[in-house]
Amino acid sequence: MQQAIGLLLLGLALEASAGSVTQRADLNPQDLERVAAITQPTSDFSQPEAFEIMQGGAGTVKKRINPDIFSHPAANLTFEARQEFMVGNGLFRKDWVSSPASTQASDGLGPLFNARSCQGCHVKDGRGSVPGFESIDRSDAVSLLVRLSLPSSNDDARARLDRGEVVSLPDPIYGHQLQPFAVAGLPAEGQIKIDYTEIPVSLNGGEMAYLMSPAYSIENLGYGPLHPELRLSPRLAPPMLGLGLLEAIHQNDILANIDRGIAKGVSGRANWVRDKETGEKVLGRFNWKAGQPDVEHQASAAFSGDMGLSTPLFPSHYGDCTAAQQACFLMPNGAQENLGEHEVPARLMDFVTMYSQNLALPQRRDVDDARVLAGKKQFYESNCIACHVPKYVTRRDASRPEHRFQLIWPYTDLLLHDMGSGLADGQEEGDASGREWRTPPLWGIGLTKTVNPDATWLHDGRARTLLEAVLWHGGEAQAARDRVVAMTPQERADLIRFLESL
């Protein structure tokens, strides 16, 4: 019923207009015209747009604003789908243990790992926290993992990357990711250390902002020295909202974003990655550098890299253990013959994937507030929408019925952009360079602190406020960032009010 209402509302909102969208085989000519009309950026900031409040389409929920606001199932799920969602929720929250254990189907953690559960990083399905900005009783770095890579300094290494055999070149001892925890009998790989330097930024109107520039190192190394050319890329666990809807955006609509801002020096790039099931190169959409093509790949990679658990897509029982860590391969695993050959069998992966695809977006708040509308005008006129594309209509033939033909407002183009030297990690990932990051969706960003008071922003959590996050923008976003610096204090406050309404 909710889905039917959502489609009806979309039909009422769509108006015929000039213009077109990149051809989509899932739409007939009439639908193409209607979708082109509804997805055009607005130029009227005197009132909210039609159905702007329903940022997740018919799946949007209107619930009490509290720390659980990111953990609700999409409103348009059927009764049967809600049952699957709840099973997936239990698996997402479950603490895994090392093998052997008396608890069936809950062992196999590690041997090296970052966290014991998905929820351990994605706090209440929202953002994680970083050490140094946390309260004393949350001083660990569970939510902030560290990717490790070497430069592709020779033809053989470049060829391995081009063939999709690896997305980055690992450290020969420590692999692709630092593991700060280990099962009994093994040393952990090490712990991240962060030193911050304060950078003052003068803003128009006499205001000042203070950015925290991080410097990263690894201490308490458990397996010898790091490679001298090793590059570190800390990555903060992002929120889980609306992932299935992002998956349902038509590829052609994403590729059409590539040159939408080129006249103002903005041009996105796709990250083409290897599908582990088909072996084909496909469009990357998920994680900080668009290194995973869909929710199942993203979740499976997390089980493997973060918890050392095998899945059908990542079948090793030993996660990121390397040939230099032979003791890892002597540890028992949690695969059980009666459940299949993997520690997280296909059926369990289906539940986790379905859960991750269907966490609901909350309704927008204060969309008709004068200050919010003024801030929206600043957001558009500063050309933030060149990367943070406001809205899409999802595929009519999406794999799940609740995601089909929905008007959604994620504020992302799902493409890579050069964000300048200030945010660069120097780490290549597939087609992504060391200066490029995928545009993160902004929907739900205004409730970040409600869900996790210790949460911060950007890929490594260095930004303590939304304004700080904006001021870190460089590269292709430098002009938009400079526009924000030049705003009056009231205009900047309005911009932040708009972001907080998302």
Number of domains: 2
Percent of residues in beta strands? Answer: 5-15%
Structural class: alpha+beta
DSSP summary: helix tally:
13
Domain Cytochrome c: 370-502
Signal peptide: 1-18
Protein name: C-type cytochrome
GO molecular function: cytochrome-c peroxidase activity; electron transfer activity; heme binding; metal ion binding
How would you portray this structure in words?
GO terms for molecular function: cytochrome-c peroxidase activity; electron transfer activity; heme binding; metal ion binding. It holds the Pfam family DHOR. Keywords: Heme, Iron, Metal-binding, Signal. It comes from Pollutimonas harenae. The chain is an alpha+beta fold. It folds into 2 domains: 247 residues, no CATH class; 205 residues, no CATH class. The strands form 6 sheets. A two-stranded antiparallel sheet has the order 1-3. It is globular and about 65 Å long. The protein starts with a helix and ends with a helix. The N terminus is likely disordered.
List key phrases describing it.
502 residues; alpha+beta; 2 domains; two-stranded antiparallel sheet; two-stranded antiparallel ribbon; 13 helices; 12 strands; disordered N terminus
Question: Summary?
Answer:
The chain has helices at 2-13, 29-38, 79-93, 155-162, 243-247, 251-255, 295-307, 346-357, 370-381, 448-451, 466-471, 478-486, 489-500; strands spanning 112-113, 144-149, 181-182, 191-202, 208-219, 231-236, 272-274, 281-283, 392-393, 407-408, 416-418, 436-438.
